[in-house]
């Protein structure tokens, strides 16, 4: 527990650059211009130097010791939950260098890079579909997923799932977000009172319960 709290308290380093936030990786790399791997000495300044020396305008750090460079983000990379980037830099334990499949993203412009989320139908709003059980085999919503122990909200979960290409989303156990395009057939509708846990990032909102999902659909 002490280790988790120490990492969660880290903040991005302040250098001569703009910090854009925590961004998702994609099956093909989000930044494909150049990469440097150093699991013992990587720092944010090192990554900046490696990328800008080669003329790149965007750089991101991932999984403590990975540095990626480019001039634009690949389709499918978009802002994630800030708490997804929670790994200390290999060469600077006071700073954050991304997380598993997450980039701490920086650049030379004050304007964040353009993002092109995964394709999804044209939708404008969300509607509540009720409180549902988890499935007996796979997840009730088995697409993308995210966890945020301190920042989960219904809006953020909905946007995360839509940007991932899914129109259904559900929040569970206060801080978990699950995405899909249909509920698993073994998931069942239960009373709304089964979903009674406050969202970790919005105490006035409900984010499911133990093995229970507050389910919404983009329409």
Automatic annotation (TrEMBL):
Top-level division of the source organism's lineage: Eukaryota
InterPro entries cross-referenced by the UniProt entry = Sialate-O-sulfotransferase (IPR051589), WSC_carb-bd (IPR002889)
The reply to whether Kinase figures as a keyword in the UniProt entry is no
Q: Where is the WSC domain?
A: 16-109, 125-219
Q: Which UniProt keywords apply?
A: Repeat, Signal
Q: Name one Pfam family in it.
A: WSC
Official protein name in the record: WSC domain-containing protein
């Amino acid at each position: 527990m002490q280790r988790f709290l120490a990492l969660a308290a880290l903040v991005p380093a302040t250098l001569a650059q703009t910090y854009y936030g925590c961004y998702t990786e994609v099956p093909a790399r989000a930044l494909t211009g150049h990469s440097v791997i150093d699991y013992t000495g990587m720092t944010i300044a090192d990554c900046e130097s490696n990328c800008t020396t080669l003329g790149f305008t965007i750089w991101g750090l991932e999984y403590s010791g990975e540095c990626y460079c480019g001039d634009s983000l690949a389709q499918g990379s978009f802002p994630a939950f800030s708490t997804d980037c929670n790994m200390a830099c290999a060469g600077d334990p006071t700073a954050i260098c991304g997380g598993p499949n997450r980039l701490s993203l920086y650049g030379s412009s004050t304007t964040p890079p353009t993002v092109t989320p995964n394709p999804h139908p044209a939708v404008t709003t969300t509607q509540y579909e009720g409180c549902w059980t988890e499935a007996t085999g796979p997840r009730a919503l088995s697409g993308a997923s995210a966890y945020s122990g301190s920042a989960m909200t219904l809006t953020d979960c909905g946007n995360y799932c839509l940007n991932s290409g899914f129109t259904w989303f559900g929040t569970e156990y206060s801080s978990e977000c699950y995405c899909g395009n249909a509920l698993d057939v073994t998931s069942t509708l239960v009373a709304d009172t089964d979903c009674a846990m406050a969202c970790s990032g919005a105490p006035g909102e409900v984010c499911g319960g133990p093995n229970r999902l507050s389910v919404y659909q983009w329409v």
